[in-house]
Specification:
The protein is mainly beta and 543 residues long. Among the domains are: 2-150 and 233-338, no CATH class; 432-542, Immunoglobulin-like, CATH 2.60.40. It has helices spanning 70-73, 273-283, 292-296, 341-357, 374-382, 384-401, 447-450; strands at residues 2-6, 9-13, 17-19, 24-26, 29-32, 44-53, 61-62, 65-66, 78-79, 87-95, 99-107, 116-125, 140-149, 175-180, 190-196, 229-241, 244-247, 257-259, 311-322, 327-338, 363-364, 370-371, 436-438, 442-443, 459-462, 468-474, 479-485, 491-494, 507-515, 519-520, 527-529, 534-542. The strands form eight sheets. Strands 6, 9, 10, 11, 12, 14, 15, 16, 17 and 20 form a ten-stranded mixed sheet that branches. Strand 10 and strand 11 (99-107) form a beta hairpin. The radius of gyration is 27 Å and the shape is globular. The two termini are 42 Å apart.
Length: 543
């Protein structure tokens, strides 16, 4: 059998699969992108990875410093003005099972289409099985393409935010997964979706649906709903076979939920026969008699099942038989929807008055009726997010079927003024002893109090020489970033990203400052900095 895990993607291929990598025949062969495993040397082999844009992002500068994250997070490789999507991420990988994956991810800025991505996959039996491009042609039987989604719909409420919910909420311990369209194919769209359910550690009135802010050492309580989001994936198209490209309404054939800490969710090995057979069983379980949401019912989601990791949703497509040159086309849309921030604050504030201040309403429900129960009011509004998600699914499907011919918003200007407050660039310091790192320590829980939404991960080096090189090292001495400071000011910003554009992790860091040219006081002529002078500063990042 052949298999493949995406996002996990698993591909499992044919009974009696001959593996040219080890000159051995396996009854079950599985290759992986996750979970917790990515082998780019001999399993998932990158060929091409590019970002195309209908236009480039505008440049937003305040006092010579980038004032938005587009500079770091939206690196367009090529502008194609005829592109119908705003962004297209194009990705090609070969796999050690002989299947080449071509993935296109489409994103849109239209106000009715900006909360989903469309994933367009082609899985082709090319026979390429290693980085050198060697081929071994064989028919792959019982190919299963398997996607696994471990959702935790909000970071704000847990340890990566303000921590008013227990730590395990951050990895989905109380996430509830549901399925639609599996039992009566053709009657509706086929989708999996998830939300934050109840948690046994909730120690406030009512329940934690929507995870209202009950306060912590990092934030004052105000009741605002931190997790009113619903998220999920809808199937737009799945080929019936390599030779019948009509949409198969019976795909996916597996939508089981799986323990996120299951032994086969770590330590995956494409040569371990026992493990691959176990994985194939997970990938071909079919549809559960009851969905995870039905099993959890009205109980606490974190108490369901003997696991600390919560549960993941899955989609398994197949089995397919792929002869050399055959391919399968699968299109999905991943979306998120729910209450907007304003509604989350207003509804949460009324819930808080009910929970802590004795307010008894009346509270208006989504259908126009009223209740005096603040918890019923909160939950009813949170669960309108399910309807919003389904409407998003419908829009994604319609957009794809229309060939992406949705109304186009006007293109952004090449440069525009920002509403982020400008700050005065300071003159250079007068000695190396004056250099400061701000904030120090940097704490992610206070990111909104530091440099605002335009610079949530910004660290400033102040009172520095007007011309210097700043090298940032980890505590063990690894160079992760070099900044050339040559604008003559005393300030330099760093957005907490490495030279390879990776966000840095918690730890102690060392900033090394080296003067790159002599500098004299413009008023007195005194030599303030001599080329080659150096100093260091230590600072801490807490995430």
């Amino acid at each position: 059998m052949t298999g493949f895990r995406v996002q996990v993607v698993n591909v499992k291929s044919g009974r009696n699969y001959y593996d040219p990598l080890v000159d051995k025949t396996f009854e079950y062969k599985v290759v992986h992108v996750g979970p917790r495993v990515l082998n780019e040397e001999n399993e998932i082999l990158s060929v091409e990875f590019k970002l195309y844009g209908q236009f480039d992002h505008p440049t937003v500068i305040v006092d010579g410093i980038p004032a938005c994250n587009t500079t770091y997070m939206d690196m367009v490789d090529e502008v194609i003005d005829t592109l119908k999507a705003d962004r297209l991420l194009y990705n090609v990988v070969n796999t050690s099972i002989g299947i080449t994956i071509t993935r296109k991810i489409y994103a849109f800025s239209n106000q009715y289409h900006d909360n989903y991505f469309i994933y367009d996959y082609v899985f082709k039996n090319t026979g390429i099985y290693d980085k050198e491009g060697h081929r071994h042609e064989q028919t792959l039987q019982d190919v299963v393409i398997f996607f696994q989604y471990r959702y935790s719909p909000c970071r704000e409420t847990g340890p990566y935010g303000y921590y008013w919910m227990p730590q395990n909420t951050s990895w989905g311990r109380n996430t509830v997964n549901d399925v639609i369209g599996q039992r009566e194919p053709g009657d509706t769209f086929r989708a999996i979706f998830a939300w934050k359910g109840k948690h046994s550690a909730w120690n406030a009135p009512g329940d934690c649906i929507g995870e209202p802010n009950i306060g912590s050492e990092y934030v004052a309580a105000d009741g605002r709903l931190g997790a009113p989001q619903f998220c999920g994936v809808v199937v737009i198209h799945a080929d019936k076979s390599p030779h019948d490209t009509t949409d198969d309404v019976y795909q996916p054939t597996t939508t089981w939920y799986i323990d996120s800490d299951h032994p086969r969710n770590s330590g995956n090995d494409q040569f371990n026969e026992e493990h691959m057979e176990e994985e194939y069983e997970l990938m071909t379980r079919g549809h559960a008699p009851k969905t995870h949401a039905e099993e959890v019912g009205d109980g606490n989601a974190d108490e369901f099942g003997n696991t600390a990791g919560g549960y993941s949703a899955t989609q398994g497509f197949g089995p397919y038989t792929l002869e050399p040159g055959d391919s399968i086309h699968i299109v999905l849309a991943e979306a998120v929807a729910g209450l907007n921030r304003k509604s989350a604050c207003e509804i949460g504030a009324l819930w808080y008055k009910w929970a802590y201040e004795g307010y008894t309403g009346p509270f208006e429900l989504p259908d126009g009726s009223t209740t005096n129960d603040g918890n019923e009011y909160k939950n009813a509004w949170v669960f309108t997010g399910k309807d919003s998600l389904f409407e998003t699914f419908r829009r994604a499907i319609a957009n794809y079927k229309a060939g992406f011919n949705i109304p186009q918003p006007p293109p952004p200007p090449d440069m525009f003024m920002t509403n982020e407050p400008a700050f005065l660039r300071r003159p250079p310091g007068v000695s190396l002893e004056d250099i400061r790192v701000v904030p120090n320590p940097y704490n992610i829980r206070a990111r909104e109090l530091q440099y605002g939404a335009g610079g949530p991960d910004r660290i400033m080096f102040l009172n520095i020489p007007p011309f210097c090189t700043i090298r940032i090292y980890t505590e063990r001495g690894d160079l992760i970033k070099t900044i050339i400071h040559d604008d003559g000011s005393g300030d330099e910003a760093w957005e907490s990203v490495t030279s390879s554009r990776q966000l840095v992790v918690s730890g102690v860091y060392i900033a090394h400052f080296e003067v790159t040219q002599d500098y004299y006081d413009p008023n007195t002529g005194e030599l303030l900095y001599r080329k080659g002078e150096q100093t260091i500063r230590k600072f801490i990042i807490i995430r």
